[in-house]
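To: structure subgroup
Subject: Chain for Friday's discussion

All,

I'm putting the inputs and outputs inline so they're searchable in the archive.
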Amino acid sequence: MVPTDYRLDQVAARLIERLEGTRPTFRGAPERLGEQVRSIASDQVEAAIAEFSALGTIDEPERHAAFLRKEILQTMVPRYVRLAAEMNDRHDRGWGFGAMAGPVGRLVLVVVALLVLWLVLLKLIYLPVVWPLILVNLSLPFWPDIAAALFKFSHQKQLQEMVDDMTTIQEQAAVYMPAERLHLADEAPRRHRRKDKDTEH
């Protein structure tokens, strides 16, 4: 049995929390992101392994250590690096608005919204369909913020899905017995049958 703190999903969740704190520092440097993520992940996995090995709370620490190294470093890390690079790229591109997401760009959006309101929408104020357009137009300076919030929500959802997948992998690992255990379990009835035959004779 594996204590909760050292389950794959819990180790992955703590690692993601740490990586998310580091990710913004690599905006504009995607080539360094992967290397740094792998380094942090390796350090955290080895720290967890050293901790549960010292405590002696796991029956087969070597087996669980190999399991953590494989699933974290080979399965989770490449997936996280891809998501992190995409998120940093979206931030660098102003959430799809480019320079318009910056302070000067926001000022331009305010001016554009006011011009459209004054030159077009107010002249058609008597039309009911124009009122929703006025609200949309006035929200124009906040569109980069809305886009950022949506991207961040999507990113957090994808990270949670990653942890959920780690939960599934951990549960599957607990269900299936390793090959050496299957071999021993298969040999045990044979030994008992041999003993019974010897007793009969």
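Points worth raising on Friday:
Helices lie at 8-22, 30-55, 61-92, 103-119, 130-138, 143-175, 179-200.
Residues 143-175 form the longest helix (33 residues).

D.
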